[in-house]
């Protein structure tokens, strides 16, 4: 069951990347991957936070302009454990639209610096 859900999310990322990369090639596209450090809190339970994972694709940014929009397709897994030893895991898809401020070279091969 878990493998099927992951396969669906992976297929969604691939389709989104293929569909958006043709129009966004001049703007920029890429892959993201890394840890997540979630903080869970509750007055009723004491949680021990655990490191999760984060993987995604980003598209856009209008690198040749000072201001642009960037869209991301992110899959996140956040985990925690209760005092009783029960593991809680949350998997979700996040699709933010971000305002991007560009500095540095507008060339695809040059150094780029940007803030989101």
What's this model, at a glance?
The protein is an alpha+beta fold.
Reconstruct the topology from this structure.
Elements: H1 2-24, E1 29-37, E2 47-60, E3 67-82, E4 87-94, E5 97-104, E6 112-115
Antiparallel strand pairs: 1-2, 2-3, 3-4, 3-5, 5-6
Structural class: alpha+beta
Strand content: over 45%
> Any idea what the shape is?
elongated
The ordered string of helix (H) and strand (E) elements is HEEEEEE
How many E strands? 6
Biggest sheet architecture: 6 strands, antiparallel
Query: End-to-end span in angstroms?
Result: 36 Å
Rg on CA atoms, Å: 18 Å
- Mean pLDDT equals 77
- What percent of the residues sit in helical stretches (DSSP H or I)? 10-25%
Give a verbal description of the structure.
The protein has 116 residues and is of the alpha+beta class. Helices cover 20% and strands 51% of the residues. It contains one helix and six strands, in the order αββββββ. The protein has one helix at 2-24; strands at residues 29-37, 47-60, 67-82, 87-94, 97-104, 112-115. Strands 1, 2, 3, 4, 5 and 6 form a six-stranded antiparallel beta sheet that branches. It is elongated, with a radius of gyration of 18 Å. Residues 20-26 have low confidence and may be disordered.
């Amino acid at each position: 069951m878990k493998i099927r859900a992951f396969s669906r999310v992976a297929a969604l990322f691939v389709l989104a990347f293929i569909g958006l990369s043709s129009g966004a090639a001049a703007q920029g596209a890429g892959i993201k991957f890394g840890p997540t450090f979630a903080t869970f809190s509750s007055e009723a339970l004491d949680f021990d936070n655990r490191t999760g994972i984060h993987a995604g694709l980003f598209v856009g940014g209008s690198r040749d302009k000072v201001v642009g929009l960037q869209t991301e397709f992110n899959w996140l897994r956040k985990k925690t454990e209760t005092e009783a030893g029960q593991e809680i895991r949350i998997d979700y898809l996040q699709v933010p639209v971000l305002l991007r401020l560009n500095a540095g070279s507008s060339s695809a091969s040059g150094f780029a610096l940007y803030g989101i």
